[in-house]
Design goal:
alpha+beta, 5-stranded mixed beta sheet, 4 helices
């Protein structure tokens, strides 16, 4: 297992992995190649991939609002699950955020995604059932 910083040259493989992992994404909006490229230019260290024998098998995109760090787009190829790849990406994300002075780590998980909820609990995260998430979007693609 090798962890590398992803670049825009990895975009096609990232999208293929998200599809294999069943991760919904917005290819015409926030997950378009152009949008990802812009984010990579601004925070290149926020894009991590795990490779096995040259194959991309895990990804994470980190973000920060300068007070909290967010773990986004965590995905592992179904054939490689159960090997600690996701937990490794979580730990690496936390390290990167700590280097920026951020010590609160957050993640949004759909309620139906029990495996992800259990993973984050095992990694020391607390589930908050008293918080309701609101969003407003300019379009369904963002």
């Amino acid at each position: 297992m090798e962890i590398k910083q992803l670049t825009i040259n990895d975009y096609e493989e990232i999208v293929k992995l998200w599809s294999r992992a069943g991760l919904p994404f917005k290819p015409k909006g926030r997950d378009s190649k152009e949008a990802i490229q812009k984010q990579m230019r601004e925070n290149p260290e926020f894009f991590l991939g795990v490779f096995e024998n040259g194959k991309l098998v895990g990804t994470v995109i980190i973000s920060s609002d300068t007070r909290k760090g967010w773990i986004n787009r965590l995905a592992v190829d179904p054939e490689y699950r159960g090997r600690g790849i996701a937990a490794t990406l979580i730990r690496e994300s936390e390290k990167i955020l700590r280097k920026r002075g951020i010590h609160i780590f957050c993640v949004l998980i759909e309620d139906y995604n029990k495996p992800s909820k259990e993973l984050f609990k095992k990694c020391g995260y607390t589930e908050h059932t008293d918080i309701i998430y609101f969003s407003k979007r300019d379009s369904i693609d963002v």
